[in-house]
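Hi R.,

Here's the chain you asked about this morning:
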Amino acid sequence: MDIKNLLKSFNKTSNRGLKGVCNTPLRVIRLYRLKLSRYTLLVATLFILLLNCQPCNNTQPYLILYAFNAEGQVLKEQMTVEQSLNILGRDVCIGSLSGKDIILAESGIGMTNASITTQRLIDEFEPVGVIFTGIAGAIDSAVQIGDIVICESWITHDYVYHGADGPVPDAITVYSPYLDSVIEMTRFTVDSTMFAVAAGISADSIAFRNIGDRKPAVLVGEAGVSGNAFIDNYEKRIWLKTSFHALITDMESAAVAQVCTVNDVPFIVFRSASDLAGGSGSESAKDELQGFFKVAADNSSTLVIKFLEQL
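And the predicted structure, written out as tokens:
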């Protein structure tokens, strides 16, 4: 019922009530009707004004994170920036990309920086979902430099018990919003809906930058691992592969995954391999990173843009 009809209904009810109380003269009844009508109209008008004072845009933005500037450059160039902020010393851009409202922000390098930034931005902007993009080191030899990997779950690889037999992975005690209690978790799973959308994107429809003569592939599934260490050691890479069946490794994603899980915010991670952890041939992972990180970062961002279009 609209406001006009609501007022008519209210006035009819009020008038019937007045006539049934006593034999009030017609002049007095009309006076009461006039006062009630004006009072009702005033209340309705104030109510509408209050509604109009509320924000009209009820859509929540997506929070897109990257660790350092080069990883977010393509996204920043492609988005429409409406406002630029500095939060906790990090660049934060508010605007739109691929028809979606987004918050684009630098998290900083490392697990602790990523955790702090993610939590602050979740508190500040209440995003509908979190997307992390950037480069990574390949753990599985099936992942070649430039390939983009969308893992199904993320694990903190340096949360371990170091005993006489070497490091043994341990579970992390975290809060579960679903159970409203603290539980032990070994991995953090990405949002199933976002994962399904990402898995449905064809690499053939995307103009990736080639690595030499090879067009990068998109690999979906398995696990990724994160920790406060840049892995440039063959034995460590094999241990990560054996212990976690990991495809890639980085220094932020598992931390962001844990923060999102605790806050009950859907998340997904896109990572492009810039190097083989432990190096390949005569080159170390550090050398490979310097040569390929920009191409890898751009390819990850290109896939994120396509992903936003599909959401």
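The helical segments are 3-21, 26-53, 69-78, 111-125, 192-199, 234-244, 253-262, 285-310.

Let me know if you need anything else.
M.
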